[in-house]
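fyi for ur records
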Amino acid sequence: MPTKVKKISKFVNQPFDFILCVVVFILLALGVVMVLSASAPSALAEDRKNLYICR
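which gave:
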């Protein structure tokens, strides 16, 4: 009787891609900074703190 062989995904055996992770975090940080810098003037125009949109 043949034994069943589990098929493991090809992604499990791949090494962690550090450069891709760094690029994703840099783009995420830039996006957050862009959103905060775009929302600060509108919050200040309404006499609120500049990070009012984030709360």
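Residues 22-54 form one domain. thats all i got for now
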